[in-house]
Design brief:
This protein has four helices and no strands. By secondary structure, the protein is mainly α. The radius of gyration is 17 Å and the shape is elongated.
């Protein structure tokens, strides 16, 4: 049985957080891999906030939930307008 008086050491992933673009590309790829329409699924998630629009394949759901939906939308609008 483990002794609860001993010091426990935990390791956390201290890597740099992904940019919004990187997360969206990862989510897009995961959705596409699973046979979903990635655009429809991502829009459904942004509009509703329902994480089940995003597959858990390759950690896509976990990744996208680390971002605020309004930040995703801001990034998309800014990118779209810069392209015009």
């Amino acid at each position: 049985m483990n002794n609860m008086n001993e010091t426990m050491q935990f390791q956390f992933n201290l890597s740099e957080p992904q940019s919004t673009k990187e997360v969206l590309l990862d989510v897009y790829t995961a959705l596409n891999d699973k046979g979903y329409n990635p655009i429809n699924q991502i829009v459904g998630y942004i509009m509703s906030g329902d994480p089940t629009y995003i597959t858990s394949h390759n950690g896509a759901r976990t990744k996208i939930r680390k971002l605020e939906r309004d930040e995703i939308l801001e990034e998309l609008v800014a990118f779209y307008l810069k392209q015009s």
